[in-house]
User: Fold these one by one.
Assistant:
Number 1:
Amino acid sequence: MTQLTLKINGQSHSIDADPDMPLLWAIRESVGLTGTKYGCGVAQCGACTVFVGGLPVRSCSMPVSAVGADEITTIEGLKSKEALAVQKAWVKLDVPQCGYCQSGQIMSATSLLEINAKPTDRDIDLAMNGNICRCATYVRIRAAIHDAAKSLEG
Amino acid sequence: MIYELRKRGTSAMNIRSQNSSVATELPQAIARMSVEDATRLSRRSILKTGAAGLALGVYLARGGKAFAQQPPAASINITPNTFLIIGSDNTVTVLCKHIEMGQGPFTGMATLVAEELDADWSQMRADHAPSNPGLYKNLAFGVQGTGGSTAIANSFEQMRKVGASARAMLVSAAAAEWNVPAEEITVENGVIRHSSGKEGRFGEFAAKANQQPLPENPKLKDPSQFKLIGKEGVVKRLDSAAKSNGSAVYTMDINEPDMLTVLIARSPRFGGTVASFDASATKAIPGVVDVKQVPMGVAVYAKGFWAARKGREALKVTWDDSKAEKRGTGQLLSEFRMLSNTPGKVVKEEGAVDAEFAKGGGRIVEAEFVFPYLAHAAMEPLNSYLKWDGEKVVSRFGSQFPTPDMAVMAQVLGVKPENIDLKTILAGGSFGRRAQQTTHIAFELASVAKAIGPGPGVKVVWTREDDMRGGYYRPFALHRMRGLVRDKKIVAWTDTIVSQSIMKGSPFEAMTMKNGLDATVYEGSNEIPYDVENFRCDLHQVEIGVPVLWWRSVGHTHTGYAVEAFVDELLEAAGIDAVEGRLALMSKKPRHAGVLKAVAELSDWKNAKLAPGRARGIAVVESFNTFVAQVVELSMTDDGPKVHKVWCAVDCGVAVNPDIIRAQMEGGIGFGLGHILYADIPLEDGRPVSGNFDTYRSLRINEMPEIEVTIVQSTEKPTGVGEPGVPPIGPAVANALAKLGLKRPRQLPMVPGASV
């Protein structure tokens, strides 16, 4: 076990953890932020997506000791105008069904809009195909990303 | 939610059970399940306040917190019945007797209540009802549970009557308060008004309404007066916000102090048992608290998921496979094929099918369709939570069948059913998996709790691999079909099915099996919508040691494909258009014909000019009394079929929430498409091979077609939409491939070994 300090959503958290433990479990169980989900454990489904140093990572496959001093952002800490536009569009279009994958979807969609203000369908495919939704809400995910992009134009 | 309660300084164990009438007679109750008159609202189910009413205050607070809305904690005003709570802040919380696993019952039940209550949609909330079969039974089942796309169907009148009763009592209370005749009072958008100018809102009158008599037979609106039911753009899902900001709480998120996370080492083969185990290395892992043998394997109890997982990896278990299923899918397929060439038990026979084939003439078409084992693989892997003190039990999980689940927990733990406080919470998908005929999840949870004894709460977590290799699959199935086309007519049809029973040996057997044959295996194959004079459907119901389960749309997952791909092939052989040909054979099936015509029109089936390399196919399937037709347009790529667009027409009777119906069609199409293209759980020597999404390929956003849905206007009783979107997509894809000059795939998935 190792003493580690994680900076999550602007706050520092000291935790005592196995250095090999994936970041996901530190976020969910050591810190108690449960919006980030466990879906596969092998970086296949994207439900565990968080930002580390501003970039989306699959927290289920990143050892907690590899994070270092990088700032972590979870669904609970989203603040950018892109993130808020995405969340607003998600609610407007009633995207979620079971909802379990949606934190990860929103993290990936936010990241996309932060680097590409006007994504094409192809851009959306490329940015979002690492996030599985077993309810297959993909039609609305796509529509909501376009809707969010449009709302950011004005 | 428990997690929320902890933060509020309340121990979960302090919540008193509300289960005053837990069915000790449960097994019998399940066995004699009959479809009750869904329109009847028993007086019991709209109980006046009492012990239950006070208890509901607790649920109110939790419901509010769970959805991260302003908690109406100060509002303990209880309205007249156990289905809704009106807070002093004017919120109306509907206690939903059905599990919200994505299909939308929170919103659906609230819509029905709000319509008759004349509430404003913005004041509506929803939470799960506690477990209490007397109050919250599914009127189609007789016990509390969700399945078979019955939520709206069984609740349509019941929940409207709840709203109408509450409205009448609020009006009576206002009339008494204002000293005016009740008839002069109107209610609109949550505001109670009298012509004198007096007005008030629900919260002010909730307590007084409680003192008013319960209307014997509250008047329901004429459909022409509906403001919410069937209306576009008025009703929004109640759970979207919480599911878009991370605050929605699922079983996986329960994180109680002192709680132990439990992973179980289960036999790699179905039916294997523990011969011996060595836990010494496991116990040396920091965080591992204990290791116990349980009926389903060896349980590792730890502080958190990671320690439990490392502990389980370090465990050495020797399995006794003497009673395990050791056949692989290759061997099963050979056995199925042999059987399918012999007559099975006849499910339905009409005319003289053998004589017709013997007559000669015409063209005989034969086809064999093979369907793999499929996992449900909901995004949230299976899990459950329980805490007990030796007497009282608190349990929370996505229990789809709370009544049988509670009965088995009571049995295992040796506690009185009334001492079990089980509440269903949000589930990250199910597709059928969270309801089991064997109640094995509840059994496992109780067994794990019992093995370590009263005290700390236990959260049993299945890893993705556990979930995917854990059985309870859509059964492996084979259809051998033979048809005869003569003079542009289908004159004979046989379908010999080989598959495994879902219901046999379960409490549902009496309800779903006739002459020893399981209707969930052949449903859709025995009653085809087409007029064929000489017809036979027979079944070989085989015994395999692989646990199987209903999987979103159950038998229709394979019968829909077999029937619709085959009829299309026969029509093609007869040289008749797929739509015209079907319609000509549907003389007794107006609602099938209705959706077929609607989708043909929506997609411009007749006149559409397609780009080169593209083709269209069509299919229509009735399941759970809902009728769905779909047209697909696709092209072929190196990675298999690429579906560009799907047009879908649905007739589900009165459409309560059009946007949720559309969402369920979209989701059902995507779910169905992903599986027919890519999904398979092959068995090698009895061991499931696929264990995660790298080997059980799931549909991804780049593979999702554009979808257009039309809802056929209907005044028929509302029926479900959770499952019926699934069956038509597979055969529609197959039929489009045939138009491209390719063969209709005879063995699913269409893209084999796509990701293995």
Number 2:
Amino acid sequence: MTALVEVEKLTVAFGGTTVVRDVALRVDPGECVAIVGESGSGKSVTARTLLGLTGDGADVRAETFRVDGEDATFHTERQWRAIRGARIGFVLQDALQSLDPLRPVGREVAETLRLHGLLPRKEARARAVELLRAVGVPEPELRATQYPHELSGGLRQRALIASAIAADPPLLIADEPTTALDVTVQAQILDLLEARRRTGTALLLISHDLAVVSRLADRVLVMKDGEVVEEGATADVLDRPGHPYTRTLLAAVPDGTTRGTRLSAAGRAAPRPPREPGDVVLEARDLTKRFGDRTAVDAVSFTLRAGETLGLVGESGSGKTTLARLVLGLLDPDGGEAAVDGRPWGELTAKERRALRRHVQVVYQDPLGSFDPRWNVRRVLHEALEVGDVPKRDRDARAAALLDQVGLPAATLDRRPRTLSGGQRQRVAIARALAPGPRVLVCDEPVSALDVSVQAQVLDLLADLRDELGMAYLFVSHHLGVVQHVSDRVAVMKDGVIVETGPVADVFAAPRAAYTRALLAAIPRIEPSRTSLEATT
Amino acid sequence: MRARRVAVRAGTSVLVLWGALTLAFAALHLTPGATVDAIIGSTTVGPQVRQQIIDDYGLDRSIPAQYASYLGHVVTGDLGRSYQLHEPVTAAIGARIGPSLQLTLAAVGLAAVTATTLALLTARRSRVVRGLASGTELAGVSIPVFWAGILLLTVFSFQLGWFPAAGDDDLRALVLPAVAVAIPLTTMLAQVLREGLERVLDEPFVLTARARGMGDAAVRLRHALRHAALPAITLLGWMLGMLIGGLVVTETVFSRQGVGQLMLGAVAGKDLPVVMGVVLLTATVYVVVNIVLDLVYLAVDPRLRTTA
């Protein structure tokens, strides 16, 4: 059988830096192969190279480089263009940026057909509507005329897939196709990819998420620092990981089974001591917030005790972030109240509010956006210490102590946020939140932008700090595994309402609300025995 | 909602025009020298004639009274009579706006086309090409318009004789001044466009378009250019407004009877009605251009069309 793509000893370098080294990869017709790795592993560069789109200034070498059985080592741009879209379809993550925001989505879908001269303009337009219908876009005639910003994330991703499969390529490469999506939408997109595969299209999945991959892939390649460290049938790799890195990756995935333990390699053996919740430090009573005629948060009540973690889960638009802002006193509620240490925000003067702020601090998803890029870490921490009334002469020492507490060397003080890695930045953000000595920490998707191994370290750090300092966490996340791992109690939010709340073990084991059940069912889980099961039935 | 927006827009436009007039009025009355002396000019007249002129023009009234009467006339479309040219301001401007408008549009159009071509050809190219382009652009921005004008005249008019050296009644006479004015405009626009293009060419949707099999030229033309055009359109609008009354140097070098020349004479001679007329014209051009720009933005970027 002729492989759709076949590379051996593929090496890619950008200006002397080798980002992919000696990679061998083969995708046969109808097969689903996955490349798993964290940022910087070279997985995306490998995928783009297969389309001849490595990028400007790339030095690509390979002993074998065949597409459709033809040697592609010396393919001209014209030859590559005949392959792209027609022989290999390509789906990128986050369709808001991967579809041209200035053009209707129907035209983006039709573009593939026009480029390969498959259909004249008018028929291409009609075919685009059909393609949108085929990928499960409701009202495709209307949607084809709309722009990406008018579509939900799931619909955009479907439209992007429609444009990639328009010319019916035998191979579809999907680079993190579900990363930006909510878990229920992610499940739908994975279903769509699976359906596509059943019709005979081969898939090459690029992902950082082993669980997403385990559902679809026949074979998995694990990449680290530009090299394939492990390769094999999905079940084998997940059941019996041969390489230490694969084992680290698998162990770092947070879920119910990891509760009360460490995720990162350091000190894994020691389970956490049991904790006793203290006084109520945060209370929400019938909190309500409207934007126009939309009710973003609807009569939400909860309490949070010192040393306790309340996980708040929900999909985008469920009102979790609005609720967090109400609790932080950054938004005024239209009804109800939020109280920190028994003091409701609404009853305080502006001065008293400022004084109370130091007791509730926040860590956001993207620390880069919440740092002034011109400030170094020292200035960032000094500002936060000023809020905590730390005298000027003590600030340097305190800043260094805070960095030590979050596991960063004191030399980090002179670095700027941009020169730090994602994990280091999130540690600085945590140090900044700790600086004024808060009693409550609101964590708004604090690990969503991080790789799974870094996520494991940051989650461990947060748990250590909670145990050490007796802080309470309101932990907001769309990631159910993360919430299950860190939380004592969980509140499930949908359309501004808390539909279910209770101890984590109860909610995850026996969900009462239909929505919670749907959420839990949609989580992709690592299913090592899937392939062997299918083989027996 | 839409009606409300239009009303607000119209209201602010009127405010801008009124503000421009008021500022110009104040500035002229703050400069030293009596207006009556400017009207009399270098001829010697007796006190009787002098008084007659003061009465005719209402120059003995208080400044607020003069201001009020001026505004009243403007509202009815009467911009007054020029002190020096002895003709209505509307007629004076009307006679000269043609050449200015022609030159402005020709220069801006030329700049837009050249800059777009240059930017499309040089964005994301090799270091040599980009270095050459930005070097040329730096030179282009630095060349004073009068110097470029004189150079063009020397070569293409005096030596080669391809184009006339002066005048404004022939389209051939438009070529050299338009090129001279367009040089700095082109380089400014090309820089903005190229920066925009290079930013857009990094976007994931450009990669997606290439992954569909689209060629480089088509990616630039069909996807990237429209994104890069948004900031360039803003710059283009500013150029139109700036040029209409700001072509003094070019009009002098090429002996064109335009609004810039008119303005220069009027300011030097304290010809209050003409100055005010040109100010009003420039402000009107800015207001109109900005309204048109807002509509162009809507046409280019569907994300702005949300009617909330």
